[in-house]
Amino acid sequence: MNVLVSGGAGYVGSHAHRALIQAGHNVVVLDNLSAGHRQAIDPQARLVVGDLEDAALLDQLLGEEHVDAVMHFAAFIEVGESVKDPLKFYHNNVGNSVRLLQAMQRHDVKRFIFSSTCAVYGIPDRMPLVEDMPRQPASPYARAKLAVEWALEDSATAWGLGFVALRYFNAAGAAADATIGEDHHPETHLIPNVLMVPLGQRENIRIFGTDYDTPDGTCLRDYVHVEDLADAHVRALEVLQPGQQRFYNAGTGHGASVREIVEVARKVTGHPIPVIEEDRRAGDVPRLYADASKIRNDLDWTPKHNDLSGIIASAWAWHESHPRGFDDRSSDSAT
Fold it and tell me: Does the annotation mark 90 as catalytic?
């Protein structure tokens, strides 16, 4: 297929568009590079630097590239920022998604893979999370993602769009060859922040809350390797038909605690990684992990990276060879 990948220069998008190419698809990446990285683009992909607000550009790409399907990653992702500036998130994450869908409708493109989030469930009262649980998002970021899910459902009914919404849990790790990986500014995810300590970029890591009702008192999260996420996108695309509506939890089905992450990182890096324990943060949920049986059954998808040590080791290989991310000079020779 000819696949347009919006936000394909970002963390998950770069791994997904590489997986598409490896599966034999033709890829055009549309990214404004506000948060993505030119160096993350696979040499076999065509990069178009542009914005989803440019309707003429969308028409040009969908027409000239004979696009069969769209994978949509482009979005703002920081939950705290969404609370401070919600309209920025509605404008970008909802408005630009709608513009993309309108262009697809004009060009009769009816396959769409959406990068959604487990945050659409809100603060759950039971675990694990299953796809038919109520969607009660607790932040503007999550509400914007849910708004797009609604737009997808209504588009499927109105004009035959086929879509898969993949509700991510905690994406982690890096490519096996350590040429692409996680590089956010600012970085808010736990694993890269932990790894900044052995890199000499942080003195310690802070643990917020050690008295939760979990085995070691710290929060549990479901960490899924980014290459497994990429594989889920490709599998979803290859079975999707126009008019179909599918929602999948993209997670491993089990949680790892903050203390576990730190301890495994110590073993992987050989660094003591000092810890400072602090009070709980408002809004943190003690446990958050997926029931992933639906995606396993429907797509025959099984995460290949179930070992936390392997996930962190792949992240460490990336960060150690690119200590300043894609801005590091060593990245020029690695891509």
Answer: no
